[in-house]
Every structure is written in structure tokens, then in C-alpha cells.
Design brief:
CATH superfamily of chain A: Beta-grasp domain
Number of domains of chain B: 1
Shape of chain A: globular
Strand content of chain B: 35-45%
Radius of gyration of chain B: 17 Å
Largest interface: A-B, 25 and 33 residues
Distance between the termini of chain B: 42 Å
Shape of chain B: elongated
Distance between the termini of chain A: 40 Å
Order of helices and strands of chain A: EHEHEEE
Structural class of chain B: alpha+beta
Oligomer: heterodimer
Number of domains of chain A: 1
Number of strands of chain B: 8
Largest sheet of chain A: 5 strands, mixed
CATH architecture of chain B: Alpha-Beta Complex
Structural class of chain A: alpha+beta
CATH topology of chain B: Aldehyde Oxidoreductase, domain 3
Radius of gyration of chain A: 11 Å
Helix content of chain B: 25-40%
Number of strands of chain A: 5
Number of helices of chain A: 2
CATH superfamily of chain B: Molybdopterin biosynthesis MoaE subunit
């Protein structure tokens, strides 16, 4: 198990009810983190529409996550 | 030059105001990458971009892209490239607050989670 800090933004934060939480997860990739947190908080955003960053660096869903990492889950963006 | 102004309607719904949320650290990093890429694609340009955050009223300017170039064709193409990349890459989110009191995040599925309030707390919809 890894202790991972997850940060939520926009609609994800509203679903989670918090902007950030630390969880002990059995996760290898950012995708694992996404699926486990979405189940936990009930979001239905298709992962292909979302983005992820790890320790403040944009990443892919296949990127590995390590103990102590901060994973930032970005719902579909809408700048402009 | 491109200017994105807050409109009073979207997808047939009357909008009262917009709320932009920006994750600034990565919006700046990704934004600068976009400008660098524009410079590589269109070598003879100079470009700047500004994106606002927080609550914006109808008629306010939310995003501004300025490009100078030797010829207009390159300027307009670079401008288009920049705004298109900003809209799809930067960690910026837009919540529409509707006249009927509802609100929703643009590009997001209508909220599937029933146990969170969807109506703008400041205005009780009927």
C-alpha cells in the first residue's frame, strides 16, 4: 500500500467534498488512483477527458505513482 | 489578437456569470510551453497571453491573446494555435452560473453525484 496525497479541482472537489486528502492505496499508476478515487466519490467523468499531474508535473495516466507522491486530478478543462 | 468575452448564453441557457478556477502553477508552465511551441511553428512572431480567474460578469474579457508578425497570415494562424491549445491543455475550469439559479462546470458530465448541491447557494432555484 502507498500513502498518496490526492488533490481535487473544480467538479472533482465538489464531488469529493474536499480539495485534498491523503489515502493509503494499492495503486501502481495514476490510472489506478483515478479509478479508486472516482469510485470513492462517485464522479463519472470519462478518464479520457481528464488530465493528471504528479508532484506538479503534467503526467500520463500510465505514469507510475510512488509512496508520498501528490497526484492532482484534473476534470475536463475549459479555459478561454 | 483574440479576445474571449463572457457571453450571456451558452448551449441555449441564459448565463448570469462565469467562475474560472485555475491551477496557477501548471497553467503558467503549460501556458509558456504553448507560447514556445507557437514560436517554433511560427518563427517570426511575438506572442503574449493573459487568462483571468475568479468570478467574471457578462461582457468582461476572460482571455486575451496578442501576436505580432511580419504578415497577418502568420499572426492569425499563431493566434488561433495559441487559443486552441490554451482551451484544451491548461488546467483551467469554467463554471457557468445560470439565470435560473442552476450552475454547472463546462465540459463536465451533468453531475452524477446526487448528494452534492447543484443549485447556486446564493440563489434558491424553484
Amino acid at each position: 500500500m502507498k500513502t498518496i496525497t490526492i488533490r481535487y479541482f473544480a467538479v472533482f472537489r465538489e464531488h469529493a467534498g474536499v480539495g485534498e486528502e491523503s489515502l493509503s492505496l494499492d495503486a501502481s499508476t495514476a490510472m489506478d488512483v483515478y479509478h479508486q478515487t472516482q469510485e470513492r466519490h462517485g464522479s463519472k467523468e470519462p478518464v479520457g477527458h481528464c488530465k493528471v499531474a504528479i508532484n506538479d508535473v503534467m503526467a500520463d495516466w500510465s505514469s507510475a505513482v510512488d509512496d508520498g507522491d501528490t497526484v492532482l486530478l484534473f476534470p475536463p478543462v475549459a479555459g478561454g | 489578437m483574440f479576445e474571449g468575452w463572457v457571453r450571456n448564453q451558452n448551449d441555449g441557457r441564459e448565463v448570469e456569470r462565469l467562475e474560472y478556477e485555475v491551477y496557477e502553477p501548471l497553467a503558467i508552465i503549460e501556458g509558456e510551453k504553448v507560447l514556445d511551441e507557437a514560436q517554433q511553428r511560427f518563427p517570426h512572431i511575438n506572442a503574449v497571453c493573459v487568462h483571468r480567474s475568479g468570478l467574471l460578469d457578462i461582457g468582461e474579457c476572460a482571455v486575451w491573446v496578442g501576436v505580432s508578425a511580419a504578415h497577418r497570415d502568420e499572426a492569425f494562424k499563431a493566434c488561433r494555435f495559441i487559443i486552441d491549445e490554451i482551451k484544451t491543455r491548461l488546467p483551467i475550469w469554467k463554471k457557468e452560473h445560470y439565470v435560473d439559479g442552476d450552475s454547472g462546470w463546462v465540459n463536465c458530465e451533468r453531475c452524477a453525484n446526487v448528494n452534492h448541491r447543484h443549485t447556486d447557494p446564493g440563489k434558491q432555484g424553484n
